Amino acid sequence: MIRIGKKESKKAGALKVAEAAMTVRSSTEVLDWPGNSPDVNPIENLCSIVTRRVSKMGCSTKKKSIENVVKVWFRDDDIKNVCPKLGNPCRKV
């Protein structure tokens, strides 16, 4: 059996230990993996869109920040397009 592991581009202490353990086995190949890859996780992609939109709106208070997140979440066309593709996990958020 061939095992394929993934590693993020920024090496943390635990990652170095895991990488060393995986390379001991000759049948394990370690692949480079981007540190932040929202395209792999649609929820991360969704959060990234919300964060970008809200940061452009300017938030002077906590209340204003929350209002802006709600505006983006319920009224932004990109969010509306992503949510149906996610199914239940998105609706639960």
From TrEMBL:
<protein>
    <recommendedName>
        <fullName>Tc1-like transposase DDE domain-containing protein</fullName>
    </recommendedName>
</protein>
<dbReference type="InterPro" id="IPR036397">
    <property type="entry name" value="RNaseH_sf"/>
</dbReference>
<dbReference type="GO" id="GO:0003676">
    <property type="term" value="F:nucleic acid binding"/>
</dbReference>
